[in-house]
# Entry
Amino acid sequence: MRVGSWRQVWGRRAVLGIPYVWLLLFFLVPLLIVAKISISEIRVGVPPYEPLLEFADGAFIGVRATVTNFVLLFEDDLYVSAYFQSLTIAGVSTLLCLLIGYPMALAIARARPERRPPLLLLVILPFWTSFLIRVYAWMGILKDEGLLNGVLMWLGVISEPLVILNTDTAVYIGIVYSYLPFMVLPLYATLEKLDPSLLEAAADLGARPIRAFWSVTLPLSVPGIVAGSLLVFVPAVGEYVIPDLLGGGDTQMLGKALWDMFALNRDWPSAAALAVAMLAALALPIALFQKWQSKLDNPEGQE
Amino acid sequence: MRRSVFLLSCLGFGYAFLYLPIALLVVWSFNASRIVNIWGGFSTKWYWELTRNDDFLAAAWLSLKVAATSATAALVLGTLAAVVLVRFGRFHGRLLFNGLIAAPLVMPEIILGLAMLLLFVALEQAIGWPDGRGFSTIVIAHTTVGMAYATVVVRSRLAQMDESLEEAALDLGARPIKVFFVITLPVIAPSLAAGWLLAFTLSLDDVVVAQFVSGPGATTLPIEVFSSVRLGVSPQVNALGTIIVCVVAVLIVVAWRLSMTRKER
# Structure
């Protein structure tokens, strides 16, 4: 690339330095502090954790680190089950998003070119309106005396209202609903680029549409599937608002557990340990996403 | 290509799923009855109640200020980051930079919120700033998130841009800073608008991070809505949601028409 044209070194340094320093100070350092506090001891006071490095009369006397916070997490069934429940709910929701989103993305990609932008716009539009208020709308639909039960009882399908709000089912609906656009967009991006002549070739060779889909379209859209799944899975694992509003007492998810531990129990070291444990579970998916992103930025493989 | 009935019905179902709750919200906001299944007649009383709800109005004003400030900061930082990533080639620490800029996109909000709060607490202990949490802490947290999104939008436009324009200007003796403002900025302007709007919307919508980094005196609109919604269905929130949907729909359609006429020209 052209390095020489950005001749003024100081200018280059400023352009690089300003966002870099911001990210280090307001993103990397906070994460390191979380890691630090996750191995600090809890205490009663402000702030509610002991300093990691001990000083006496200005001299450094030792490190006071502990793994108790992590041990406590693993020994507490509540958090272990929250851990697995979060991964399960996020995983199943991702799959549901894929099942609903894939045909949508394919239908948009196969629509006439001039129809694609408005169809895509319709997928994105809900994302621009308040997430919180859209989740809240589901409360009105799903509650015992809500719209869904009203319609089903009026149709005579059920005689007693179904309990959906404050159950896992409601959480699934909420997550799939909120994250569906994140699945459709990357899927559409890969499906749109698909060369239609490949499908024509498959048809000429006698493959039926279903067969052509399985052996041509689907394998070629794997990058979109991976990207979309990560964009749904990762935030869903840490989701806090949806389980809080739609979930019930037995829906334990990490995001909610973390908030309760932090705000109600004021146990900051354990909350930090939970955050570290959550990041550990997400490290692999996040790394995959990073790789996908850098491939997207450098298609020629410069990196 | 042959239209598949299956695909089209999936598309129809998907749109119905996406839009049904929004449509219901609009209908409920005009319902005189508090109960969703009973139509109590057409009424705008929830809108009037909303205009008299001082907590909501104060929170909305704070949210708009936070969103405008953080979106602007996020756009400046994000544009710088995009220039670095697209035009700077290799440099020491590029891998780390790349990772740091993309990580907030996939980091669960709850971890981001906790991390930001712990930073502010540690800073306050060490240097006495920030003194408590409020406007500035929310702005900093939202800027970090918005910056990541703004970078994605701006960098993709910058990567498509024809570099020979910039090269020509440089060859003619223009200084890089002048080239950036006279050539680069006008070309990438639509992506700047999109990046700003994205950061603005994300800030306006965020409840999780804001809950961590806001103080007692600074309640943003989503926090206010969240706490009233947790107590149950509230017709005023229906009215608020309807207003938000209308504003967003108008803005998006206008932006879309503008981009269409640009392309036609």
Remarks:
- The CA atoms of residues 297 and 303 of chain A lie 9 Å apart.
- Residues 71-297 of chain A form a domain with the MetI-like fold fold (CATH 1.10.3720.10).
- Chain A touches chain B through 100 residues (CB under 8 Å).
